[in-house]
Amino acid sequence: MSARALFGIYAWFIFAILGLVTLILLLIAPSLRLRRALAQRIARLMLRATGIRCSVSNIHLLPATPCVVVANHSSYIDGLIMKATLPTQFSFVIKKEMVRVPLAGLLLRRIGSLFVDRANRHAGAMDARKIMREANEGKSLVFFPEGTITPRVGLQRFHLGAFVTAQRTALPIVPVAIHGARRVLRPGNSWPRPGEISVDILGIVDVTTAVRNRGTAETMRDQARARILLALGEPDLQSESIAEPPLTR
Question: pLDDT-derived band of residue 103, with 50, 70 and 90 as boundaries?
């Protein structure tokens, strides 16, 4: 057995054990604030224990007030990376398919994640209204607007959902570039490897004065995507067609 496979087995063992510990703690922790703090601490421990070194740059560009963070999505560990690095008050917006993953759905619910049904338009519209209510109440949100990962290196087209949410609630958009996650755990490869990951906060795309029309959301999307693409220095996969999720309707 190769060294890569042996390390992968070790890494998945660590993820499984700490994931189970996390779930138990989240089931008994009484408040959402405490559950999120515990989840962040264990996410950082998971990374350290598996040799994944994570750093954050320009954290001062992340506003102290509520905002909508949008990040590129190149690996299954992106959520773990963002949980470990962002302040604890952020709610993650995740595709509803994750609810069906054993134990993961329960864990994600316990830290206040929000889910979007991309297959059912009616259910997706109901999910969109719930997300909008959260944003209107001043909750900070995290989206991966590519919606899915691909083995190809590059940045895919962005769905509009995050930007419609920001536009209608006048929350600032904050683009974030995640570097190195694909090398640590490449889509289609079961074996994680140690490595360095950096999270780059790219500043605010201000929507305070935005009018409520679809064109403005598209402009915000394009501006945020352009910043992330420039920071990543990867190929532009914009031309690949994807369907818009119900959240944008």
Answer: confident
Distance of CA 59 to the CA centre of its chain: 16
Q: What is the pTM of this model?
A: 0.89
Which residue matches tokens 């990951």?
197
Q: Which residues contact 171 (CB under 8 A, 6 or more apart)?
A: 66, 67, 68, 135, 140, 141, 165, 207
- What confidence tens digit (pLDDT) does each residue in 118-149 have? 777 788 888 888 999 999 898 999 999 998 89
Q: Which architecture, in CATH terms, is 3-248?
A: 3-Layer(aba) Sandwich (3.40)
Residue matched to tokens 């309707």: 249
Helix (H, G, I), strand (E, B) or coil at 178: strand
- Is the separation of the CB atoms in 192 and 50 below 8 Å? yes
Chain centroid offset of residue 54 CA: 15
pLDDT top residue among 201 and 125: 201
Burial-class residue 101 by CB neighbours within 10 Å (0-12, 13-18, 19+): exposed
Sequence-separated (6 or more) residues with CB below 8 Å from residue 231? 177, 179, 200, 202
